[in-house]
Each structure stands twice: as structure tokens, then as C-alpha cells.
Prior knowledge:
elongated, mainly alpha, 13 helices
Amino acid sequence: METIKNYLENMFRNLPQTEEIKRLKNELFSNMEEKYNELKREGKLENEAIGIVISEFGNIEELLEEMDIKISVKENNYPTISSEQVREFITLKGKTSYLIATGVSLILFGVVLLIFLSQLVEAGYIFQSLSQNAQNVVPVICLFLLIAPAVGLFIYSGIKLERFKSIEEGHFEITSATQSILNKELSPISSRRNVGVIIGVCLCVLSPLAIFISSLFGDDISAYGVCVLLLLVAVAVFIFITTGSPVEAYNKLLKIEDFSAERQKSNKVIGAVAGIIWPLAVCVFLVCGLVFNLFHICWIVFPITGILFGGFCAFYSIIKSH
């Protein structure tokens, strides 16, 4: 039913939100919901039932004419993109999601390697022939050796998506036929995303166990537990990005959820805050580790930053919705 609701919201988004239009939309949703439930009782599969309901919906202009509703639809003068461009965008978003997920994972692996090597150096297992300064610098060099290709992957992904800048910014329109097809396809893709979210969240919830278990063997071993925690988080983030990106592509094309006109404005503010807070967190992490030799504990900067940033996003979204 969420797919049908999104379809209606998309079809009515350019119409003035008068009481007459709102009543028409509610009536249509009730009728479509009733038809959907009827098809489900007849044994139709969910995707099949949604497809039938949407195909019987009809053209918005025809419905308005049939109901004798005279309105002027808002014009935004955005170009209408072809179905080929839509398919190309969806395919490219899927490919670049793996590049971005790999880049993020490389950075997390770099942090893991930094902590792991620093712990081995502190325990006297490696680099004993080097000076104290060299022993502290080598793990940092390994970190940056992984950050460099990660940044390269991010830049390459951005370059590949540059020609779809109008879609990323929401400055486009699609035909009603394309909308109908995308809405039919969105439901199974969303289901795969939901499975990925469940797996990723479970990994994140279980990851602190690595620290608790390792601490049972002594404080020196607990640092290795942090490494396992970050590895589990890296796997979870990879799943989040690769399963969520296809849904994001469809939502952008349909201009729903986070990519509606209202949410786009909020996202710009949240993105600006993210561009400040996360680099600042990285700087704090590196300064605490390199200057004060606190790599064994300063990793906590990242979960604290994540919690605070998540709280800000939720608070800002609530404020903007009222």
C-alpha cells in the first residue's frame, strides 16, 4: 500500500492543495485500497495487485475533467527525461553505490589498521628496530594509504554522476507512463533494502560485544575488540549503501520521501552541518591519537558524533514539519 500512496502523492504534487483536491485524493486512495484488498483476497501477488490498481487509476487530467474540477497546474519548466535516461541513471546509481561503499569500507579498514598496528607497536611485536617517532608514524601512513584510494573512488563516482546533475537536484520531470512503471518496480526493491537494513542494524547492535568479550582477556586485548567492532560496522555500512542506493534512485526519480521539494530544502541544511561535523570529528580523532597517543580510546569520537548528528537530524526534521 505504501507504493500506491507514493504514486498518488506523486501524481497530485503539482496540484494546488485545496480542500476539493484533498478530498479527491482521499477518495481515490480509499477506492484503490479497497481494490487492492479485493485483489489480494482473490489470490493475487502483492506486486501484481499493485500493478493492476495503478494501471486502472487513469490519467490525472482525465480524472479532473471527469470530476469537473477546473485548476491550473503549476508549471516548473523542467525538461522531461526519457525512459532510457531513467534506466541509465538507475543502473549507474547501482554501480556507483558499490564504489562509494568500497571507499567508506576502505576508510574504516584504515582506522582498523591504524589501531591494530599501534597496539602491536605498543606491545613490542613489530617495528622495534625503528625510532619511537617512526613507530608512531608508520600506522598513520597505512591509514592514509587506504584513505587515498577511497577519496579517488568518491571523486570518480561524482564524475560519473555529473551528467545526471539535473536529476540529483530534482530539476526534471518524467512521463506518467514512466511514473507508473517505477512505482510498480519500487516495492520489491524496497523489500530488499529493508532486509539489508535489518542485517546491517543487527551487525551494528552486536558489534560492541567484540569489546566486551575482548576486555575479559585484559585491557591490552580490548583494543583488538575495537578493531572487530569497526570491521562489523564496515560490513554493515557496505550493506546499507549498496541496498539503499537503488531505492534512493527510484525515490529521486519519483520525488518522494527524502527527495520531495520540502525535504530537499531540509537536506541542504543537514548536508551543510554534516560537511562540518564529520571532518571535525576526524580531526579530533587524529589529534588525540597522534599528539596525545590516545588511539586506544579516541575511537569513541565517531559513535558520539553519530549519535549527536542523528539527534540533530531528527530534531531539525520535527521542527521543519511543524
